[in-house]
Protein 1
Amino acid sequence: MRIQMGTFEVPFLIRMQRTGVYQPFFQLSLLTSAFFFFGTAAQAQFSTPAPHAVILDYETGEVLFAKDANRAMAPASMTKIMTVDMVFEALRKGDVTMDTEFYVSEEAWRRGGAKSGSSTMFLDLKTNVRVEDLLRGAIIQSGNDACIALAEGLAGSEEGFAAQMTARARELGLDSATFKNSTGWPHPDHKISAVDLAKLARHQISSYPEFYPLYLENDFTWNGIRQGNRNPLLGRVRGADGMKTGSTEASGYGLVGTAERDGVRRIIVINGLGSKAERASESRSIMEAAFSQFDIYDLYQAEQVISDVEVYMGKAETVPVKLSAPIRMGLHISERDKVTSRVEYVTAAAPIQAGDKIAELIISAPGKTESRYDLVAANDVKAKSIFGKAWNVLLKKIRG
């Protein structure tokens, strides 16, 4: 039975993930929402000239910063992270080994080789090449010929492989992704969002730790031609160990990058910049900011009782409500004093069982979608007897 709506603010503890220090927050006023302050001066908000950008915390999957991150975009050679992921999965399943050899077809040689004018591994036509070498050609040299050879070797055709890439991406929850090739070659329907690229990177790092170190290699020589890793973070940003650059006229200059420091890993994605130099400069700046200007805050603990909610016709007048799981949120340090929290509830009718959803906790923060969390009854509340219910109705009539 729905009797009465209500909202009120609640105090909570915030803990900075890296320091482990809890700081208490107290109710400030009887408004429908309340503000909680760290007592430090707000710093300038973070910004970037990149048209698309994401900073993701690896451990929690929390998006720390996003700029036009959900709109599907042309990913250029950052596509190759998905191509490589398909190969890693085939290796894990035992469908192929690192020593399996794939044939370099005329299609792979013509559209991705030296004569194509695109990034290439310089594969020779009608040769057989080991999967391990093709992976290095795709990751380090960004070779289109290597990607096409891998696609044809695994699926029979690049078109069929691209369909498998899309299907696999959807299985991983990357709903913005549609792949039309294995290389990132421009196609109007070949797209993925920046946030989904970040999630893909997180999946690959966690799922294939035995293969991931390939991204850290500085150079690779094939056919007598040595090419360096194109990632501008490697060797220049502390802790950087991957992942992939990309650029076409349609996409601009982009990068998926990641670094780990003192057990904390961040993943960044940028796209749409105007030059290689701007990409290098901005990627380094964003990665440094990812560690120095953002953090994960533990707002509430699991099983924490949030408040009491009124009960209608119950032997108890109220029931405590609690969270089932902890709540974390990634924030820029200048936004720590702008988090708001409130409870929305409906007066619940007895009987109530522990675990019944009674209310919702709503948390708001700048630049983030309002988040809602279920609040459940912490204990049972029995209904009043028939006499008790009648007496309750009589009292309400007397009181008007």
Note: Confidence is low (pLDDT under 50) at residues 1-5, 14-43.
Protein 2
Amino acid sequence: MGKIPEFYVDADLCTECGDCMTAIPEAFRKVAGEELAEVYNTNLDESYLPKVEKIMADCPASAILWKK
């Protein structure tokens, strides 16, 4: 099974609502001492693609983006 494209959290947009960390804890975590989330694991197989696309669409700050 293949891997999904890399994605990241734009620190300037993130409000650390926690939705991404709840939806995909295998990929997102809180940045220690900061009020934002980060992607710590992009090594996810294709089965995660629908979840990642959904949290990207649902993120209230539109802070989760694909790397180019």
Note: The mean pLDDT is 95.
Protein 3
Amino acid sequence: MQIDWLDLGTAFALYLVIEGVLPFLNPGGMKRAMAMFQSLSDQQLRIAGLGSMLAGLVLLWAVRG
């Protein structure tokens, strides 16, 4: 399996665009969300991160086959 650097760069660029949408459209909501994250335990954040990674892998598998 060979890495396609164009696909990797495209994926990273889209990640940055998606990450920037919430603070651009709703900075107050982003601040509230960050404050809420501080109150979560490390275990809760890890579970949320794992869920996000698994959802991303399933989506990637569905899109790319």
Note: The first helix runs from residue 5 to 25.
Protein 4
Amino acid sequence: MEQGTPEHDRTARMIAENVCSAYMRQASGELHPQAEQTLLTRLVKAIRPEVPGGTPRDIIDAANEALDAWEQQSGGVRGPRVSVLDRADGSVGMEATGAS
């Protein structure tokens, strides 16, 4: 059973908001008005289970998996991936992706 605490929920939401904001600033492709809210919801859902005991790498991987899945469903939208996470303040660093 998942144990939820307001602190863990706030942390997951803060990180997800930072990821979503940074992603949206750098994304290319056609973004619909609801896209940001949909992506934010998916990021929170992916990140939340990793917050209590996960490492920063676990949270980064969860966020990037959510971005991958969202892009697959969104058609031609492409954007960066999370490369760095500061758990203390929820800030993230993003890195462009691309096939070589």
Note: Residues 33-75 form one domain.
